[in-house]
Structures are given as structure tokens and as C-alpha cells.
Amino acid sequence: VLSCTCISFGVATIVEFISITGQGICLVGNTTSSNRTLTYSDGTKTPLLLPFAGWASAQVLGQIAHILFTEVMGYDTLLLDNSAYNSGLPIVYAAGCLDPDDPTCEKRDFKHPRIHLTIETWKYGVTVVPTLPSDIRPAVMSVQDYHTMETIYLWHSVLDLGAADRVSLDYYKSYDAGYFQPHLYFDKWDVMLTAVPSDAIVQCKDMLLGSVNDRLTSDYTRVTGDTDVSCHYNDSVWFSPACRSNTDLCVPVFVQWWVKVLMQQATSHNMPVAIMLVKNEGHYTDLYYDAVRKHRLLFGWYQPDDMLIDAQGRLPVMLTFPPTNELEYSQNTFTTSQPTFQPRTYAWKDLASVDKHVTFLASRMNFYDEDMDSLMVSSRHNKDKGLSVYQASRKVACDWVTANEDRWRDWVPVICPTGSYTDSVKSCVPCRAGSYCPEESDVPISCPVGYYCPSGASAPTACSEGRTTNGAGSASAGDCSVCPEGSILVAGSCVAFWVLLVSVILPLLLVVAVAAVAGFKVRRDEGVRV
User: Fold this and answer.
1) Per-residue confidence (pLDDT) for residue 4, from 0 to 100
2) What gap in Å lies between CA 119 and CA 83, rounded to an integer?
């Protein structure tokens, strides 16, 4: 269930977020109520705000985080759609920026950010961080143990065809045209010309300098020595030197990015390929995936993702190139494997001071490549059964949380009840005598003067009968034995000197005076009679 959460920050609303609600309980029998909130420095309270990203892996991880924060830790948590169609947006919102298109972050509300934590920040999001003003940059919470990668893949069915001839089609050397004929295991290259509508194909003249689609032709020639960078068939297909003279030998390569890398790899390793680029936006991406599913191609893809899972529930097979040389990549030489990247989790810079328990989980929530592969296969399976993006990601997340308590239990801090405090974020100890501990205490608070605090106290107890203590840190009612200055202990109670003067001493003096007068009169009268 979706509900509109349109958030205004004193200026015109920039982006409308959609709060994903009504997803039901995952942990059956759990009695934790989701009523904890974050408290900003101005005293206002807010739910914990998490992004629901535009790609499958981050959607599942966001749902896992949501379940742990709400059902295990008891936080009121909102999962906000339309807040992360790329990994740079949550970074901007966690910095307090209001306009995602303004790199200077001129419109900002740092004290009330739109997102508190990012979920699965890829390399692009990491590059956004240093562009923000230094005083508001989000803080790194963790670096995940799984890897994101964007490279060339093939289907298991194609791999099996090669294996029958003892040709390892997942290894770049098996594409060396001097020794192998890899085209025998793929569709003819020209199947790409009709695999998608013509308006989905990017022409080489539009692979512009400075864009992700830039072919970097001067670097290509520098690295390979090949000067022929021309494209054919309506300026849409580039043929590598290994099959340029006989295109029937070309293996079709269908991609949405990184043509500059593939050109250098193919020529450097004598690979016979025909490369076509499809637009990476809107419905063109759906057309691309549909074409990839139907044909025997080499194709560009990224992991983790759930879009390309075969009928047997298997992920595509990555084509392995020589180990990555990151120095060469920094110099626009792309003959080795593309670098992988370990995603980050970032947090609003003030989050640690506002809530240490939220930051504790965020800093420890961690997954591995095997986790992500399994989650993505499960995600695809649930979507193929007809579940929506929201339902599928929730189902996958709930299944994982239910089956892996031994994993996530170590991520969750102990939130101590009243009368105890954390000696670490993983254990609670009773509040010591002479101190008191309200809920979620980090350290005991010394009992103030005029109060006493027995062991396990959640609040100080005032001394009775007007008594006070010798100082702070009293542990029992017996320590309330001191009367304030200007008073005196009388029959167990403190009585002010002026009260004592008016109510006791003056009346006593009056009685004495009356008695003295009376005695004087008696003696006088007796003297008269004598």
C-alpha cells in the first residue's frame, strides 16, 4: 500500500516522496511496538527515514532494514519511494539538500534531512559525497562485503554449448579468433538489428564526449593501434578487427553502456565481435532485457540484479577478462576486467549524536556476494509469480530475516529499559545505587541533592518531611538526614527557625512572662497583707 508523503521544508516542495505502508507483520508473534522516534536538536520528533531505491538489490536490503528497525528495534520507520532512482540522490537528501539538481546545496535544511540513511550506495553515489559542502557531507557507516560489477555476460545455455566442444565461453581466451570460432555458439550478429526498435539504438555519432557512452576513440587508437572506429548499418554497429573483413564470424554483443571498454578489450584480445548500444532509459531498458532473454548473445549487465535470471533460476555467467589493472583504468586503458565496487552505507552527519542505536545497526548490517545472488534469484522468482515490486521485495526480505536470525541478531543493539544502562551497546547493567537511569541511558545519572536513588532506580525520589541530603549521589531514605540552612530537625522533621520562633519559642517566652507577672503579683499581694 502506498501513501503520499509530501514533505515541505519551508520552501516549495521539490520532490514528492511516496511512503510504502501497510506491508504487514513479518516476524509473527513479535510484540515490539514501533513507537520510538528520532528527536532533532530543536526537540521535534521524526520517524526514521529510509530510501526505497529504484533497483532490486537496494529494494530488498531496504525492506530488510525496515523490518529490523520496526519489528526488532521498535522504531517508527518510513520507507520512501521516489527518493533514490540513482545512488546519488539519497546522499544529497542525507546531507539535508532540498534540490537534488543543485550541486551547491544552496537550499538546505541540515537539521531536518529528508533521508537519514542510504541503502546500497554505488560508486556514483560515492563520487557525489566530495562535491557537497564539507560541513554537511554524510558519514560512512559501513562498506559491504559484496561487490557490484558491470561487465559482459552470457547465458548458461550458451556456456553449455561450448562446453560440449570443450570450449570455455566464460573465458576471454576462448574468443581469440586465431584459435577458436566462438560465433558458432551464438546467433548471427545481425539479429541485433531487429531485436529492438530502431529508435532504441544509439548511433555512434551520438556517443558524445563526456557522456557514459563516449567511445574515447583517441584512447582506443592509442591502446590498440587500430584507426578504424567507424560504425555501419545506419551508424549503429561497430565491428572489431578480428571479424571486420568477414562479419559472419562476429559474435553479437548487445550493451547499454561501456562501449569504450568493450572496444579496447575486443581488439586487444583478438575477439571477433559486433557491438551495438541500446538506450539506457525508460521503456528502452525493458526492450533491451526482452531482447537479451530471447537471443544467444554476449550482453552487458550488472550485479546484483534480478532482471536476467534463466528458466532454471540461474544467474547469467560473467565473461572473465584478465585481472583488473586499476592504474590502467585511471589512464583510460581498458584491456583488463572492469573494476568491481563494494557498496557503502552513509548516514546523515548528525545521526550518531541523535541516536546511537540506529547508527549501530547501520554500521553492522552486512551482506556477501552469495547473499545477494540468492536474494536476487528469489526476487525474480516472486516477481514471476505476479507479485509487485513492493510485494516481492518485502517477501524476499521477510524470508531472509526469518531464516537468518543468527546473522542479524549481532547487528541489533540492546536498548536498555528504565533502571538500567548500557555498559556497551550489546548489554545492560542495573543502575547503581546513588544514580538513576531513564530509558536508553548510556551512563547513570547522579542522584541530585535532596533526592535518593536505590539500585535500579529509573528516576530520583525526593526526600520527605522537608529533609535533604549532604550532597549528590544518595542511595537511601536514611541519607535524608540534613535540614536546609535556616531550619532544624524536630521530631524527625525539618522546621524553619522562624516557624520554631513563632510557634514554640515566643509562646514559651510568653508563658514564662505571664507566669513571672503572676508570681510578682502574688508576692506583692502577700506583702500588702503583711
Assistant:
1) 41
2) 11
Q: What is the dihedral of CA 125, 131, 137, 139, to 10 degrees?
A: 40
SS3 1: coil
Nearest alpha carbon to residue 304 among 61, 142, 48? 61
Compute the distance between CA of residue 371 and CA of residue 334 in angstroms, rounded to an integer: 30
Q: Compute the average pLDDT of residues 4-33.
A: 61
Closest CA to 151 of 253, 220, 219, 44: 253
pLDDT tens for 440-468 read: 777 889 999 999 999 999 999 999 888 88
Which residues lie closer than 8 Å to 340 by C-beta, 6 or more apart?
147, 148, 149, 324
Buried b (16+ CB within 10 A) or exposed e, 47-68: bbbbbbbbbbbbbbbbbbbbbb
Measured CA to CA, the distance from residue 267 to residue 259 in angstroms comes to: 12
Interatomic CA distance for residues 381 and 396, integer angstroms: 10
SS (H, E, C) 259-285: HHHHHHHHHHCCCCEEEEEECCCHHHH
Grid cell, residue 157, equals: 545455455
Task: Report the pLDDT value the prediction gives residue 28, as an integer from 0 to 100.
Answer: 83
- Kindly report, residue by residue over 393-419, the tens digit of the pLDDT: 999 999 999 999 999 999 998 888 888
